[in-house]
């Protein structure tokens, strides 16, 4: 059986890892899919994984295990919802989105509700298996006892309190319990573990980290998996988070604030006050022990640590009876939603013989935020070469984590010099030359492979049109709508002209053409970064202009920047990009002004 372990968020790792273990034990093949945002923190990089849905299309899976709410309809395989929590009262938990063929439920409470929905929709099946994330309660319940004892001795106390709120802005208690948590720590001396969700508002992450610096017995936990903290803690403080049910299944008390469940079977406060007294009361009286027993029976009655095994076996048996679906049939609206989230399916994926090898080349300097993503993006190339100008921000360390990447460090003179050197290092004739902030989407990758390995005659160099990304949103106009550059070419047919030192020019001795699909360009990270980039380019252009021996004047300082702004904002429709258009057009004009300002300075130095 071929299986995809589908991760949209970091919480999926702890849910899918037990399923992965069973797949390994039974000898099944599996492939992790992770969204791009998870790449830097993915804990299983020694296993097969991808960030591309095209790879999922080519993989031809039999089943897809999904702890999230969406999955691409066009990927082959039984689409299996395994859930990302136990909070049935949360909005959307029982919403049928029609993406899944099979729901594997945690316990009777969930099974009954989904079976009722099955009668209505009649397009999925339900099997109760238990929840794999909780298998560790059986296998690791005593694993952290020694460490817990050491923590308690260090702080001379006998209790650990875990604070784990939801990230949802409308439900989270994080803004209101900061002082209450501080009072609890200072009054009782208990150890307080703070575990915030990855999607929590950054300002509250910062605030609770600051609290942990100020109060020694407040410990901010950065672990991606909360299980260790759940097992070590003696009581949980939360709000409307599914972690409440995970904790209750350990048969330990819970305090929540303004929980929205219809039926709250633990200590729930309607106001954000009195935390310290509530903690003391629950430790001394434990008034909700009977309710916890009911929750255990209804939500997750499995204590054997074999939920992942039941899931894998259930899927195998289901496929034996019903076969493997090629795709999930959806309405147009739902297909469009999936396409917007994961990209459209790649038509006619290239599966032919690779008759020509490709070298992917990058030049870098301080590209820490991009390097992992771009190296992952060009993994389909047969050779990857990075020429780095002695980065200082962690770029080098990340490159070295990719064993198939050839790293060369070399001082930077100018772009033409560095790119010419890098091109010489390629051992293959076909070359993809990218900037670190560029990405090749699936359809473009497919087009590249089909072109390079075509049995028909090809051009010697190909332009790529580029989609300019303003942060994570597309900039449709502002002069970028016709932006294109050579990015794929034969090494034997090109060279970089020495007359240009910035925005280097490729000279092609042969035929040129344009590929249909666009490259994605993440050039704009934030205002200061892009401003610095435009000023730097302007200053480097000034070195080129110095050779022309003219003195910049009013025309250059006023008219040329104004025309640059007017051309991009009015004539090239930057006005249609709204505020983004104003910013980009202004900064591009600033780059022109910076060029002549630097030119004037250089001329004065030359005398």
Automatic annotation (TrEMBL):
Describe its membrane topology.
Answer: Peripheral membrane protein
Q: Where is the Glycosyltransferase 2-like domain?
A: 359-458
- Asked if the keyword Cell membrane belongs to this entry, the reply reads yes
- Transmembrane portions of the chain: none
What name does UniProt use for this protein? CDP-glycerol glycerophosphotransferase (TagB/SpsB family)
Listed CDD domains:
Beta4Glucosyltransferase (cd02511)
Q: What InterPro entries does its record include?
A: Glycerophosphate_synth (IPR007554), Glyco_trans_2-like (IPR001173), Nucleotide-diphossugar_trans (IPR029044), TagF_C (IPR043148), TagF_N (IPR043149)
Going by the UniProt record, its keywords in alphabetical order are:
Cell membrane, Membrane, Teichoic acid biosynthesis, Transferase
Location comes to:
Cell membrane
Q: Which family does it belong to?
A: Belongs to the CDP-glycerol glycerophosphotransferase family.
Principal localization reads: membrane
């Amino acid at each position: 059986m071929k299986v995809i372990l589908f991760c949209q968020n970091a919480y999926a790792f702890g849910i899918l890892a037990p399923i992965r273990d069973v797949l390994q034990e039974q000898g099944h093949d599996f492939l992790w899919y992770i969204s791009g945002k998870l790449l830097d923190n993915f804990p299983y990089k020694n296993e097969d994984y991808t960030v591309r849905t095209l790879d999922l299309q080519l993989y031809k899976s039999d089943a897809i295990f999904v702890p999230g709410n969406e999955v691409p309809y066009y990927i082959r395989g039984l689409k299996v919802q395994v859930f990302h929590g136990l909070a049935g009262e949360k909005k959307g938990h029982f919403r049928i989105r029609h993406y899944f063929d099979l729901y594997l439920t945690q316990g009777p409470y969930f099974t009954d509700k989904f079976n009722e929905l099955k009668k209505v929709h009649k397009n999925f099946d339900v099997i109760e298996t238990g929840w794999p994330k909780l298998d560790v309660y059986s296998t690791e319940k005593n694993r952290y006892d020694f460490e817990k004892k050491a923590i308690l001795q260090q702080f001379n106390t006998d209790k650990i309190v875990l604070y784990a709120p939801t990230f949802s802005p409308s439900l989270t208690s994080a803004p209101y319990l900061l002082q209450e948590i501080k009072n609890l720590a200072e009054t009782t001396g208990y150890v307080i573990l703070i575990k915030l969700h990855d999607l929590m508002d950054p300002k509250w992450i910062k605030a609770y980290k600051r609290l942990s610096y100020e109060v020694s017995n407040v410990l901010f936990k950065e672990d991606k998996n909360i299980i260790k903290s759940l097992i070590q803690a003696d009581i949980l403080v939360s709000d409307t988070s599914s972690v409440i049910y995970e904790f209750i299944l350990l048969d330990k008390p819970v305090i929540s604030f303004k929980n929205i469940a219809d039926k709250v079977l633990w200590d729930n406060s309607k106001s954000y006050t009195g935390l310290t007294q509530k903690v003391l009361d629950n430790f001394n009286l434990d008034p909700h022990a009977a309710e916890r027993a009911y929750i255990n029976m209804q939500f997750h009655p499995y204590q054997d640590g074999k939920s992942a095994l039941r899931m894998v076996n259930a899927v195998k048996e289901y496929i034996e009876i019903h076969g493997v679906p090629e795709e999930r049939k959806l309405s147009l609206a739902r297909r469009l939603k999936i396409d917007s989230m994961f990209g459209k399916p790649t038509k006619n994926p290239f599966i032919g013989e690779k008759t020509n090898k490709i070298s992917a080349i990058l030049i870098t300097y301080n590209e820490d935020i991009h390097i992992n993503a771009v190296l992952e993006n060009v993994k389909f190339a047969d050779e990857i070469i990075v020429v780095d100008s002695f980065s200082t921000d962690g770029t080098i360390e990340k490159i070295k984590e990719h064993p198939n990447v050839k790293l060369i460090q070399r001082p930077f003179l100018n772009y033409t010099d560095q790119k010419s050197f890098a091109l010489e290092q390629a051992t293959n004739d076909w070359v993809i030359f990218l900037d670190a902030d560029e990405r090749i989407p699936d359809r473009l990758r497919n087009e590249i492979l089909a072109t390079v390995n075509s049995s028909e005659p090809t051009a010697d160099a190909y332009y790529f049109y580029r989609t300019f990304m303003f942060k994570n949103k597309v900039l449709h106009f502002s002069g970028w709508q016709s932006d294109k550059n050579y990015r794929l070419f034969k090494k034997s047919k090109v060279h970089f002209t020495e007359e240009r030192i910035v925005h280097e020019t490729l000279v092609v001795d042969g035929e040129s053409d344009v590929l249909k699909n666009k490259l994605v360009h993440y050039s704009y990270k934030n205002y200061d970064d892009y401003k610095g980039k435009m000023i730097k380019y302007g200053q480097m252009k000034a070195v080129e202009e110095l050779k022309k021996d003219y003195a910049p004047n009013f025309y250059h300082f006023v008219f040329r920047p104004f025309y640059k702004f007017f051309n991009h904002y009015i004539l090239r429709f930057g006005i249609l990009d709204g505020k983004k258009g104003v910013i980009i057009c202004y900064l591009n004009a600033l780059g022109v002004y910076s060029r002549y300002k630097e030119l004037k300075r250089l001329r004065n130095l030359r005398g």
